[in-house]
Input
Amino acid sequence: MEQKQIPDTLMLEERAAHAINAMIGMSDEEHDHIPFFAANLNHKPAFMTHGDWDYGSTHGRMIDGLVLARHMSGETYGKEVEERYRANLLSFFKEDGLSYRQKNPAYDWEDNANFIDQRAVILSLTSWYIETKDEKVKKAADKHVAALKNVAIKERDIWYYPASEHKKDGWPSSNAINLRLAPDPASFSGRLIMPLLKYHEVTGNQDAFELCEFFSTMIIERSGVFNADGSFNDALAYRSGHFHTRLGTLDAIARFGVFTGDAAKLAFVKKSYDWALTKCTTFGWTPGDLHEQAFEHETCSLVDLIATGITLAKSGYVEYWGVVEKFIRNHLAESQLLDLDWVEDSTDRSNDIKGRKSFYKVGERTRGAFAGYSAPNDFVCDVIEGRGHTNDLQICCLGSGTRGLYMGWSNTITERNGTVSVNFLLNRGSKWLDVSSYLPHEGKIVLDIHQDIKRLEVRIPEWAGFTKIRYTRELAGDTIEGHGREASRWVKKHFLLLNEAKAGEQIVIEFPLSERTTVENAVGQTFQVQWRGDDVVGISPEGKRKPLYTGRKVFDEAPMRTGDYRRVDQEIVW
Output
């Protein structure tokens, strides 16, 4: 790959390579390569623990994350461990087609197919099949989807699951079915729509489409998960308005609305999404729920927020491109564990408990993971409210965080009907053009065009205005200058229209950076936040254990380095 001088600014494909380190490193080689679920980095020394999510949920998240991260980065490290994950996942299926939790030294539970797990299972099988077109994987996925349809309770216009766990001999309680005692619908049915829809798109599987159709109707028309004003139902029976499952359900319904051309579904999602944004910070911290876990932000929730915003933005609500870019640049990037100076590591296995707990090289093995529960200003959440300190890492958040990187990377540059759009001002290479971002140091974007483009448009941040925007276009020694005041230069509110671009052309866009301070509220806690463009460069009060946002440095000129961007001919579309 050709090396050149590029800005030393946020590179999502490199972040994906770091995530691979953690996805491989959290494998427990002493316990059949079952990954650890959680880590306490604040403990001295740090340790990792197994949990009840170790099976379909964890393996599904890791397989999906590894497929996407390798596609982004080209990194091949840890392939042998990944193969163990894939073999393990297939071994969890029983004859009924569902994925079952296994016996574990730490827990003595009955065999059951947990319905939070099933979502991660079909997610991973779908990414695995997109990557390999392996008929063995398709056979397993088809059987799995058929099982999801078979066990659903079917009424005239809605389907649902009456419990969180299904057993080999059926649902735990026929009385629950008769009385319609469905558990939280968002957790067990709503979130399933997203991977089922993608599996239908890829394979044409009609069972998957039917599940999406009846689940989405149930969520919108009958479930009560979302209140009439779009707010989340915070009743205990609805998991206290749990953000990850609600936002994941909104992401799913938005995608299904786009696929079916159902504008009402998109309007439904937008109303709830806008309400959810009022409970989050503008840099991407989300509550865990509306009660006991309110102070515990999950990276999973943030990634659902990113994915839903992207779907809405691509559907015409273009204001969400800027909303999502702030999330990616800030809390997603800050939530990734790269600095290990604060973690006390152990090279000794003597205190390990097989199948339960390990102290062995935890920091080294988890580098690249994403925060399980973070505070707005600290990687470690240990507030006096709620549940206090629990886990610093959760492997579900590692899988989700990696997917969040992919959603940002794959939507930075998009093409439709000959129009190429630069949606996020992030470093990114593609077959059409490369984007070099000098943000947050300079208000400057450089576009190097690789092939002729019929129509090129670039999103300009709303804070940049239009009067002071300048651009130059250089091709074969000829230079053209332009500015944002020109008539017919703006489309879709925030996009600078550059029209036709030629292979070999370089376009430089410059604009002033906004420096401002906002006051952010996170469940009653107030923070003063300093911004430079779309990047948080300071937060007060500062965190105490692993402070976030306090180590960010900005310069008058962007630092440069030798490197290049990864370009792929055919992207995995999620």
About this structure: DSSP finds 15 helices and 25 strands in the chain. Residues 56-73 form the longest helix (18 residues).
